[in-house]
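Weekly sync notes, structure subgroup
Attendees: PM, AL, DS (notes)

Item 1: joint prediction request from the bench team. They want all four components modeled as one assembly rather than separately. Inputs as received:
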Amino acid sequence: MVVTPDRRPDVFGAISHPARRRMLDLLVEADRSVNTIAGHFQMSRPAVSQHLRVLLEAGLVTEQRRGRERCYHLVPERLGPVREWIAHYERFWDDRLLRLQQQLAKRSKE
Amino acid sequence: MVVTPDRRPDVFGAISHPARRRMLDLLVEADRSVNTIAGHFQMSRPAVSQHLRVLLEAGLVTEQRRGRERCYHLVPERLGPVREWIAHYERFWDDRLLRLQQQLAKRSKE
DNA sequence: TAGACAGGTAAGCGTTTGCTTACGTATATT
DNA sequence: AATATACGTAAGCAAACGCTTACCTGTCTA
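Output from the run, pasted for the record:
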């Protein structure tokens, strides 16, 4: 996972681990505490903490202390670089999938 | 870079290294030989070979022997998982960027 | 105020990554 | 046939990853 000169691990590295992608997926639905997140994984809680830190340092999530809990919150805009990079390959997909994606995007706004 | 049970390194791992993403970007324009690709990087040629192998094993490229050269060819469909995953976050982008992306996609088809 | 609970941090350890240099193999050129 | 070219493979090594257990701090609650 490449660390950029400003010591911020890049987003592509952060999402390269399936557990971290699943964590982001969980945070799409709602903000969640560490224990809530850890409940979805078999690894130890410190391991979850460490993954969350990678996401935090990549700017993909923020944390907010609420009492003794720590609530993690998704920052989807930080996925921009991935979205932009993959968009360069847009022309390679067929129209059907493209329309499907657009409809999904449209529907979720309604 | 997580290796899936079938020993095929997953696509997210393969694209987590900036050099490998640049290699894919180069192959969008045209199929290229190893030396042509290596010319764009400062690392040694074997290092380039090793990166290409990661891409090959992830199914993101194919190779074709042409005389003593080896031509690498992009397989953009294999980026599907990335595209699909990022599409889950589609609703978070604003309309302007969405339309821009759609126009780019449309224009490249004309 | 004495636990209990949430969760970060440290240390340690085996594995993987990413690079290098050295070398091997197949094809092309003279 | 001898040599040059293209490129893969092997070995070695430092650094990064990903995980564990042990421990620490801060906040709630009985």
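Discussion: Chain A touches chain B at residues 1-2, 10, 12-13, 15-18, 21, 25, 28, 76-77, 79, 82-83, 85-93, 98, 101-102, 104-105, 108-109 (CB under 8 Å).
Action: AL to compare against the crosslinking data before next sync.
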